Amino acid sequence: MPTKLAGDGKRIAGIALASPWILAPIAGYTDWPFQLLCRQRGLTLTFTPMICAQALAFLSSRSATLKLLDWDRSCGPVAVQIFGSDPQYMASAAKAVADLGADLIDINMGCTVPKIVKKGAGAALLKHPDIACRVAEAVCGAVGVPVTVKMRLGYRCGDGLGLALARRLQDLGVAAFFLHGRYAEQGFSGRADGEAVRLWQNSLRLPVVGNGDIVDGPSAQRMQVTSESPVMIGRGLLGDPWLLERLDAWKNGREVPNPPSMEQAVATIAVHLHLVQRYSKHTELQSVQSFRSHLSQYCRKHRCLQPWRQQLLAQRDYAGLEGLLRAIERH
Asked: Which of 40, 45, 76 lies closest to 242, judged by CA?
């Protein structure tokens, strides 16, 4: 049975998409400034980093978790991914983030971080389908916004756990699936399996959005049923928001632009830094320290920035970073 891609393929879980590209949740990276940077390049739907359901039960005004849930609600739909294995905590967390304005709630059933798996959450739910179904049913029953599930193909290569679970979940109120084309035991090794993603898309009646190793047009196409099918992009966008321009050019039959020049790279980093200054709720030192993870990605992916990596990562305040960016631009 072909997957129903919500009419013309330009909607997912009831949310209209201006482009098929969706920003995946990535811990330590997809804060609001980075989401906004991607939105400036055409993304309609972005995800916050995943949130611990149990942590939401003990929110305070100073909570680091609460800071992840702070975004500009005038900028369009935002999705929040929650993780946990207790149906009651997950339902409570879902209601909390819906009350804070989340337009979509995603249940993480794919994270392979050991400390999360050991608690029975993330990818561990693939091995415990009854618990996973109780979690999904509780979350769907607690909120009025769409609920999706992010999954992997299974836990161990070829075990079939993922698809078997998805077939059960689609009868419990879930609106769509985001599928990373690897098994949990693979982590991020090997290559995401686009054929397996397509199998899911043709086996389930709900939309299945492919995810994994999206770095160019052909790798995106491997995850799509049609050219308008949504695709979730994660690590490919870190340090390379220009990927969105290349994907749009490829999709529309235009010449794919060259990698950014030094001037373009510095200008984009400066915009990103300005968004951090404007929206970060942390202290200046904490914000700059957090921004280093992005700077490291920019330098790793763009050779023109590599000679400046050490100096960029050594800065401790906004003024120092701004001054160094100006110096790089003049160089």
From this structure: 40
Beta-carbon contacts of 260 under 8 Å, excluding residues fewer than 6 positions away, are 242, 268, 302
CA distance linking residue 261 with residue 94, whole number of Å? 43
Whether 266 and 329 have beta carbons less than 8 Å apart is answered as yes
Orientation of helix 318-330 relative to helix 262-279, angle to 10° = 170
pTM to 2 decimal places: 0.90
Q: What are phi and psi of 152, to 5 degrees?
A: -115, 170
DSSP sequence for 154-167 = -SSTT--HHHHHHH
The verdict on whether 111 is a catalytic residue reads: yes
Q: Which CATH class is domain 11-251?
A: alpha beta
- Sequence-separated (6 or more) residues with CB below 8 Å from residue 307: none
pLDDT digits (tens, 9 = 90+) for 6-17: 334 478 888 888
Domain ranges of the chain: 11-251, 262-330
Tell me which of 111, 133, 140, 299 is the catalytic residue.
111
- Cα–Cα distance, 60 to 39 (Å, whole number): 29
pLDDT in tens, 198-239: 999 999 999 999 999 999 999 999 998 887 889 999 999 999
